[in-house]
Amino acid sequence: MRVLLVEDDDTLGQAVRDHVLASGHAVDWMQTAEDAALAATSVAYGLILLDLRLPDGSGLTILKDLRSANNPVPVIILTAHDQISDRIEGLNAGADDYLVKPFNLDELTARMLAVSRRYGGNSASVLHVGDLEIKISERNILSPQGEIILSGREWAVLECLLHRSGAIVSKAQIEEALYAFGSEIESNTVEVYISRLRKKLGHDRISTVRGVGYKIEDRT
């Protein structure tokens, strides 16, 4: 998925960005409230990692503005505030989860996956597509013939399809999940990754709705 990281600390921001990128997600990193607010209202993000204390404002204001505009994007607050009252304020403002700094990066990954599953209307950590067993949190796919290995970007495309239960996913939505600001986008990139997934998962797993997008078939 495409993630908006809002964090003004250079060291922490770079660590989180690199970790999320290594997990196969696209990341846009903003360090001010102004840039973050503009990005959050311009791009359909899969998730926002939001620091509360920013040099030109509060992350809490960004969150409240998103929810006032009925933007349902999942938000995980990253905060140095360890007071219960601060956590309650963030959750009441519409945050889906929070992590108190310093935090473990692997825990961040687990919380991101859990929140995105709930947002996609699917809280299960194991999905079945035909005779394939897909463990999203572990990034593991088992078929009757054995384990199927996907690259980071192949996982990004597959998760984009899986998280929209029963829905048709457009090419533009998949591009949003794949790329961050400044990345070069080739016109046939989505088609290339869909083709790779079909070769690995089976050609009948992903159907094309001509002129509209793609859809996972036979999912439970």
Structure characterization notes:
40% of the residues lie in helices and 23% in strands. With 220 residues, the protein is an alpha/beta fold. It has helices at residues 10-22, 33-42, 59-68, 84-92, 105-119, 152-162, 171-178, 189-201, and strands spanning 2-6, 26-30, 47-51, 53-54, 57-58, 75-79, 97-100, 126-129, 132-135, 140-143, 146-148, 206-209, 213-216.
Task: Write the SSE topology.
Elements: E1 2-6, H1 10-22, E2 26-30, H2 33-42, E3 47-51, E4 53-54, E5 57-58, H3 59-68, E6 75-79, H4 84-92, E7 97-100, H5 105-119, E8 126-129, E9 132-135, E10 140-143, E11 146-148, H6 152-162, H7 171-178, H8 189-201, E12 206-209, E13 213-216
Parallel strand pairs: 1-2, 1-3, 3-6, 6-7
Antiparallel strand pairs: 4-5, 8-9, 9-10, 10-11, 12-13
Quickly list its features.
220 residues; 13 strands; four-stranded antiparallel sheet; alpha/beta; five-stranded parallel sheet
Shape designation: globular
**First-last Cα distance:** 21 Å
Strand count: 13
- Series of secondary-structure elements, N-terminal to C-terminal: EHEHEEEHEHEHEEEEHHHEE
The secondary-structure class comes to alpha/beta
Fraction of residues in β-strands: 15-25%
Main sheet: strand order: 2-1-3-6-7
Number of DSSP helical runs: 8
Task: Characterize the largest beta sheet: strand count, sense, and whether it forms a barrel.
Answer: 5 strands, parallel
Question: Taking all residues together, what is the mean pLDDT?
Answer: 87
Runs with pLDDT <50, length 5+? none
Radius of gyration: 18 Å
Helix content percent band: 40-55%
